[in-house]
Design a protein that fits this description.
Helix content: 25-40%
Strand content: 15-25%
Distance between the termini: 44 Å
Strand order of the largest sheet: 1-5-6-11-10-9-7-8
Shape: elongated
Radius of gyration: 27 Å
Number of strands: 16
Largest sheet: 8 strands, mixed
Length: about 425
């Protein structure tokens, strides 16, 4: 047993389970790459102020969950708790918005960090794949991202997820709703901290998960009743485009995402098989975020999908992913001459794209064949002194058990043919 263990609220990804996570990341990224989104990667930490401004001073993420620290040079940094603020900062810093091709469409994959109470589906270190479309105000962009996420989930075999959809209005109509909601909240029996939060951003209170708070919010005013004509028309077009694409969704007038920067379209992907942590992903439009972090006006929209929770959703539905074999051919040499020959052949197989492995450590035939079985290889190539004297190796089909002798110079061609 090692002296050290993974920190509380974290986990290690190890084979063979790690292959599921790689497959999920690839499936989520695939439709993005086919839709004009380029890959971006940002640092694992940023200035605290970036998240304080962008994510919001009143959010739990900033006030309670952020891993913040001060460097030896006096810089105040934080491990990134989400991806959007970092991606937008990077796009602005690189002046991608000035290249004349808006929207700037980006996707990313990485680890994020929040100091939360650990439980199934909620970790202090977690993985997401995200997408952002920066610099255009168009209902078709909002619809595109929702459709691409739906496509990604369905390509994995998920069927029991739901898409919740709402509009949070804009700077024209939200202030009127904000005032109405604050008036309502002041009449409730809320603790001092919640009332303080209501003064900063009352929509945050709607996202409070405590049953005693939710019970009091039954008659809270709904934002949809305060939307201006422009926001109503925008939201209706998003709904129509999604519907025309054959994507099902549910209108949820109480949906409020846990970040302050959202405007207009907001959505969440939920899976009821995950218990209390039912959200597997979500996102929305954030037209004012660029200005919040010192950039120009750049209306934008994006989402992030949780890799960890998507894997849990697959398990809840009993979906088994078709994962490529890590090893198709396993080479078993018996003797030094066979080691040199088969090692060279394994290298050749890898060059032509065949997954091949080798029996290392000078094992005997019995031990080497055990490794071949454990590898999951479809074929095993065995060679000893007698085989090489005859110019052949033994090729064993690990499924049928059939074994045939093939010429040394035919190994690569024969395996390419058999493996298709």
């Amino acid at each position: 047993m090692s002296t050290f263990q993974a920190p509380k609220g974290t986990y290690d990804l190890i084979p063979p389970d790690s292959a599921k996570y790689l497959a999920v990341r690839e499936a989520i990224a695939a439709p993005l790459r086919n839709s004009g989104y380029g890959y971006i990667e940002t640092p694992g930490f940023e200035k605290v102020e970036l998240f304080a401004r962008g994510v919001g001073e009143s959010t739990d993420i900033v006030t309670k969950e952020m891993y913040a620290f001060e460097t030896k040079g006096g810089d105040k940094l934080a491990l990134r708790p989400e991806g959007t603020a970092s991606v937008l900062r990077a796009a602005l810093e690189a002046n991608l918005h000035k290249l004349g091709n808006l929207p700037v469409k980006l996707w990313y994959s990485g680890s994020y960090y929040r100091y939360e109470r650990p439980q199934k589906g909620r970790y202090r270190h977690f993985s997401q794949v995200g997408a952002e479309a920066i610099g255009a105000e168009d209902p078709a962009l909002d619809a595109e991202l929702i459709i691409l996420a739906d496509q990604a989930y369905r390509s994995l075999g998920l069927r029991e997820f739901r898409i919740l959809l709402n509009s949070l209005g804009d700077k024209e109509c939200r202030p009127v709703y904000r005032e109405a909601l604050q008036t309502f909240l002041r009449g409730l029996d809320l603790d001092e901290e919640t009332l303080r939060r209501a003064d900063i951003n009352p929509l945050r209170v709607l996202d409070d998960k405590r049953p005693d708070v939710q019970k009091q919010l039954t008659d809270a005013p709904l934002l949809r009743d305060y939307l201006c004509d422009a926001c109503k028309a925008y939201h209706e077009e998003v709904r129509e485009l999604i519907t025309a694409a054959g994507v099902s969704f549910e209108d949820d007038p109480r949906l409020v995402r846990g970040l302050d920067y959202y405007t207009r379209t907001t959505f969440e992907f939920v899976h009821d098989g995950l218990g209390s942590q039912s959200a597997v992903g979500g996102g929305g439009r954030y037209d004012g975020l660029s200005e919040m972090i010192g950039g120009p006006a750049l209306p934008s929209v994006g989402w992030a999908l949780g890799v960890d929770r998507t894997v849990l959703a697959l398990e809840a539905e009993g979906v088994e992913l078709e994962l490529p074999s890590t090893t198709s051919v396993f080479a078993v040499p018996l003797g030094d001459e066979a080691r040199r020959l088969l090692f060279a052949k394994v290298t050749e197989l890898r060059k032509v794209g065949i997954a091949a492995d080798f029996s290392y450590g000078h094992k005997g035939l019995k031990g080497a064949m055990k490794n071949a079985n454990r590898s999951g290889a479809r074929f095993t190539v065995v060679a000893g002194e007698r085989d090489l004297a005859e110019g052949v190796v033994q090729l064993k089909d690990m499924e049928s058990g059939e074994q045939t002798a093939i010429g040394v110079n035919e190994i690569v061609a024969e395996l390419e043919s058999r493996l298709g």
